[in-house]
């Protein structure tokens, strides 16, 4: 993709990405999330609750080994921005419940880049909004 992305294109791609990603994450199998990450050793990075994981295989292994099975998610907002490098920043806020645990708010961000007409996650960060005060 060599043309500069418009704001509307970024929003459309970002919203479609969020729907596809969470559909696989929530309904499985989580192994299929590998298609969202750059297929090499360490280009993609994910910060999950403050722990950094690098590389497609390590990220998918982390997501596959999460202790919960059932996920119920409500997306409150999805904000997108196009970047100067023709990427897309996506910011998601919402609530999720895992198994029979109480629901918690969460925030997640993604930085997507296009390669050969396929969008990949380069950077990702996830946090539950739980305050232990």
TrEMBL record:
Task: Spell out the GO cellular component terms annotated for this protein, sorted alphabetically and separated by semicolons.
Answer: cytoplasm; nuclear envelope
Q: Keyword Protein transport: yes or no?
A: yes
- What biological-process GO terms show up in the record? mRNA transport; protein import into nucleus
Task: Cite the SUPFAM superfamilies for this sequence.
Answer: NTF2-like
Task: Please state every residue range assigned to the domain named NTF2.
Answer: 13-128
- UniProt subcellular location: Cytoplasm; Nucleus
Keywords linked to the UniProt accession: Cytoplasm, Nucleus, Protein transport, Transport
Q: Which top-rank group of organisms is this from?
A: Eukaryota
Function of this protein? Has a role in nuclear-cytoplasmic transport of proteins and mRNAs.
Instruction: Kindly give the PANTHER family that the UniProt entry links to this protein.
Output: NUCLEAR TRANSPORT FACTOR 2 (PTHR12612)
- What name does UniProt use for this protein? NTF2-related export protein
Species source reads Brachionus plicatilis (Marine rotifer)
What taxonomic ancestry is recorded?
Eukaryota, Metazoa, Spiralia, Gnathifera, Rotifera
